[in-house]
Amino acid sequence: MARKRKGYPVHGWVVLDKPVGMTSTRAVARIRRVLNARKAGHGGTLDPLASGILPIALGEATKTSAYIMEGAKTYRFTVAWGAQTDTDDTEGESIQTSDLRPTPEAIEVILGDFAGLISQMPPQYSALKVDGERAYDIARSGEQVNLQPRDVQIDRLEIVDHPDSTHTTFEVDCGKGTYVRSLARDFGQKLGCFGHISALRRTRVGPFCEDDIISLEKLEELSHIGARCQELAQVIRSVETVLDDIPALAVNTSDAARLKNGQAVILRGRDAPILSGTVFVASNGTPVALAEFRQGMLHPKRVFNLG
Known about the structure:
alpha+beta
């Protein structure tokens, strides 16, 4: 006899305002418990030091997580000058120090070196895997982590505040895989004064911005009112929210049933010539599948069990 699954089949996205000090894994567990959801996962890790947007996928929305991870992101971060740490943030040990402090003018001069497609060395303390182990586990054991530089995209980088000689706050629009801690480290090295992250907040991920966020405390408050509370229902964004950049196609119920059974369907008429690659398929307003359009046919890749 099959074991009964715990929780309810909740589907969609919650845009959590993750607090400082909480891991992304812990945040997912809290949301899952608050909503009594069967399945949950996050759309991109956020360091414990960081606050801000952590998109959490519930149920069938977990099948779209890859699309949010590919999305552009915005961070607001503060660099503390005068010390480089082994973690590139305030949680690490100081490994290099300097009495030099950069002026805003000196900082502006170097920002152009970090525009567009740049090569970046990830932090020693990162979640990247090296020979099957997480880099941070290797670093914590006292070993040097053999990481390789990689290309990342920086679309916008600017100073937003310089409150004192030891701190400067920046905003950056960047692509997948960018480490803001590495930016702070590299700024400090280029300026000759060293630096590390003292505050970090993610303010945008793909289609989600700070206007969309909800705190854990507010979510818990709404859940106590009742699962049918209209405000709580509005907090959970639809599964297809993160698929805005993918061509959408409506199909009839017969074709929807074939796709859900893993069968390809033939496209006829005006839709067939304009489609290519991955397509989001819906029927009567309900998500059906992510499908691949090839040679006049839709082939299901990920099927949504909704409706």
